[in-house]
Amino acid sequence: MPFSLDTTYKTLDPELYEKATPKHIDNPEMLLRNDALCDDLGLDTEKLSSRILTGQERSEEPIAQAYAGHQYGSFTLLGDGRAMLLGEHVHGGDRYDIQLKGSGRTPYSGRGDGNATVSSMLREYLYSWAMQHLNVKTSRSLAVVETDEAVTRRQTEPGAILVRVMNSHIRYGTFQYVASQAPDELPRFTDYVIDRHYPQLHERKRPYLAFFDAVMQSSIEMVVDWLRVGFVHGVMNTDNMSIDGETFDYGPCAFVNYFDEEAVFSSIDKHGRYAFGNQRSILQWNLARFAEALQPLCAHSALTVDELEATLTEFPDRFDSQYYAMMRKKLGIDTDGKRELVDELLAWLQKTNADYTNTFLKLEAPETVDDPVFATAEFEQLRETLAAVGLDAELMQDVNPRYIPRNYLVEEALDEYLEAGDLSTFKTLLTVLETPYVSQRVDSRFQQPPPRAFDAAYTTYCNT
Q: Which of 36, 123, 182, 392 counts the highest number of beta carbons within 10 A?
């Protein structure tokens, strides 16, 4: 077997998972395989068949993990309903979860069929690929394998399985599950998570408090990076928040084209809870729920509720400090402060709804972008003000992408596969997104926003 599996999660309380069996597939067809990720994992691609990637041949019994979560503010018990952990792959001293998504029903499926459409799995492959190369910490997609059945969501499509790789799939919601269903297990579970993700914290006098602090910091770094590149996750439920600061569960996600803090693309986010500009406040809310889940530890250690709450009160200043530091880099400013300039630019963006990505390219190199929104005296004055203190191209080029997954280009690539079985446009998009910070000799569309009418009506779906 190409995978070297050693699943430590199975040493935990059996209440935290259930055994699961991948569905039988007669003729799995590999559509995409991430050979660079195979190299990183030390996998022999010649042995990595479609049957192994779909769990038809396996060396361990897969499991589905239990977790809970606040979904749009409401707490519920959950679990892997259309995913299962093939196992933990060990390579070079590191441990990686290998998860199958869309591999059939599990004990947590409820009324769901456990399946996934090929378009939703291709979408996740593309977004995780883009986020990795945008230097955002993320899950990675090893492969997409088409199955031999039809799956009906908004329309009927071929089914598919995504092979997803993460440091682990432990979430805020996993802690919520343990705290609500097996609170006596929480110290052992927390020690396990610290061992796996934050082993250096065992040397601290207050490891549980340091753990909460570290998770808060990794989450801040993740969301600040989302805001840097204009990413809208779309479903920031606590069960979709990684304990290790990895972006994952690319369902109704999208990228902002025309800047709007109220931008929402998800079909089910009717009230804008997870809008682009709300991601900061929702992260703080989610961290408060995570802190509540850690409170049973107070009965087993020196940790106190007051200490958790005191750490959480640091969130606004810590987030803002990191956010403004990031924005200064986007503006090529190599000094502290200058928040008023960042706020002035954000106000201009919100007023004009200029393209977010291209605004920074226009500031860096005016000749690279041609858009009437920049041909105003107000923008020129703003650029002159910024040039007096910043616009250092060397700083800007490392944090301002030339290319993002433009929503309309993603849809065109998916439609081409669904209608003609052709992945050529999809693969071209992958190639462009592999080096998003470098100007390429490609069609100018890759740097152009869609028509405003398209973006105003654009809707994404969970496809569960």
A: 123
Contact by Cβ (8 Å): 262, 277: yes
Distance between CA atoms of residues 97 and 6, nearest Å? 10
Amino acid letter for position 41: L
> Tens of pLDDT along the chain (464 residues)?
799 999 999 999 999 999 999 999 999 999 999 999 999 999 999 999 999 999 999 999 999 999 999 999 999 999 999 999 999 999 999 999 999 999 999 999 999 999 999 999 999 999 999 999 999 999 999 999 999 899 999 899 999 999 999 999 999 999 999 999 999 999 999 999 999 999 999 888 899 999 999 999 999 999 999 999 999 999 999 999 999 999 999 999 999 999 999 999 999 999 999 999 999 999 999 999 999 999 999 988 999 999 999 999 999 999 999 999 999 999 999 989 899 999 999 999 999 999 999 999 999 998 888 899 999 999 999 999 999 999 999 999 999 999 999 999 999 999 999 999 999 999 999 999 999 999 999 988 999 999 999 988 999 988 76
Tokens of 80: 């892997």
Residue 231 CA to residue 247 CA, distance in Å, equals 11
**In 15-171, alpha helices (H):** 35-40, 50-53, 118-133
How many Å from the N-terminal Cα to the C-terminal Cα in the chain? 31
All residues at 6 or more sequence positions from 246 whose CB lies less than 8 Å from its CB, including other chains = 137, 138, 139, 166, 167, 222
DSSP 266: B
Torsion of the alpha carbons at 363, 368, 371 and 376, rounded to the nearest 10:
40
The C-alpha atoms of residue 41 and residue 37 are separated, in whole angstroms, by 6
Tokens of 31: 């559509």
Cβ atoms of 87 and 96 closer than 8 Å = no
With contact defined as beta carbons under 8 Å apart, do 405 and 136 qualify?
no
For every residue of 376-415, DSSP letters joined together read SHHHHHHHHHHHTT---HHHHHTTS-S----HHHHHHHHH
Positions marked catalytic: 239
- Provide the residue type at 460 as one letter: T
∠ CA 19-8-208, rounded to 5° = 115
402, 439 in Cβ contact below 8 A?
Answer: yes
What does the block give as tokens for 316? 């606004």
Which residues make beta-bridge pairs with 69?
Answer: 76
